[in-house]
Design goal:
This protein has strands spanning 13-16, 34-39, 55-63, 70-75, 82-88, 91-101, 113-117. It has 118 residues and is an all-beta fold.
């Protein structure tokens, strides 16, 4: 049985990109789409406190309801600690990250954070 990694201090910063992407296929009145940059600190221990040696990557979850986040991005490089979520419409968006080990076991969500996009 493999141990699930613990994510500590995840989501150190959440930044809305300064420039948004064009939205709505260029239709007048369509909201501009925005990007959100996320970063986190990689976990170093398993849930039992032992050193984590088999971190395989992360899943970034995003949604407009904190109780229903859909998986958006699979990051299969454990050295990657940033991600950009693209094409978000105005509103409040919620984000969480999980860590995945080489056996495919996934940690619990990091702290869920939110960003309101105007």
């Amino acid at each position: 049985m493999s141990l699930l990694p613990v994510i500590r201090c995840v989501m150190l910063c959440l930044i809305v990109a300064l420039a948004g992407c064009g939205g709505g296929g260029g239709k007048p009145g369509s909201p501009a789409l925005r990007n959100v940059g996320l970063s986190w600190v990689p976990p170093t221990t398993n849930t039992d406190g032992t050193p984590l040696h088999d971190l395989a990557g992360y899943y970034v979850y995003v949604g407009t309801d904190p109780g229903s986040l859909g998986r958006l991005i699979a990051i299969l490089d454990p050295m990657t600690t940033t991600s950009t979520v693209k094409g978000l419409t105005p509103g409040t968006w919620y984000f969480a990250v999980t860590a995945v080990n080489s056996s495919g076991s996934e940690s619990a969500y990091s702290r869920i954070i939110s960003k309101t996009i105007h």
